[in-house]
Design goal:
Blueprint lengths: L5 H9 L10 H14 L7 H12 L8 H8 L1 H10 L8 H23 L7 H11 L8
């Protein structure tokens, strides 16, 4: 399997036609969101992550470790907020069981979509959201 460029992958997930679109307003937000949701920093080199950070945030940053990259992209904060969620870390039996069941269902759904060739980047949802804000006659919707 050929390794794809992090910029090309992110542009595809954000719905950009060109990599340069990643800097423009709506796509920049989508790209940051897509990176947090769909990318694993450990799959890329620190040099690639540094270049991506500079491109998206317009700030020069050289990462010493993947943990530092995760923190800079906001992945550590997201993980902490998901873990805290207003519940103390040792979850009670029923709640823990319910969360595991939901995670399993989500993972099965993602796996089935990948097998069927669907993109998991949310591009279709963004297109639908954009269509809702367009002023179209009711017959065209």
């Amino acid at each position: 399997m050929q390794k794809r460029d992090i910029f090309e992958e992110l542009a595809r997930c954000a719905g950009c036609h060109y990599i340069s679109d990643l800097r423009s307003h709506p796509y920049n937000h989508y790209a940051k969101e897509a990176f947090r949701e769909h990318f694993i920093p450990e799959d890329y080199s620190l040099k690639e992550l540094s270049a991506l950070y500079r491109y998206l945030y317009n700030k020069k940053k050289f990462f010493e470790s993947h943990a530092e990259a995760r923190e800079a992209f906001g992945l550590e904060e997201e993980l902490a907020s998901k873990n805290s969620g207003g519940v103390n870390p040792p979850l009670k039996g029923a709640l823990r069981k319910k969360m595991r069941k939901e995670e399993k269902k989500d993972n099965e759904s993602i796996q089935s979509k990948r097998k069927n060739g669907f993109v998991s980047c949310g591009r279709i949802n963004r297109q639908l959201r954009a269509m809702r804000h367009m002023k179209l006659p009711m017959s065209a919707r």
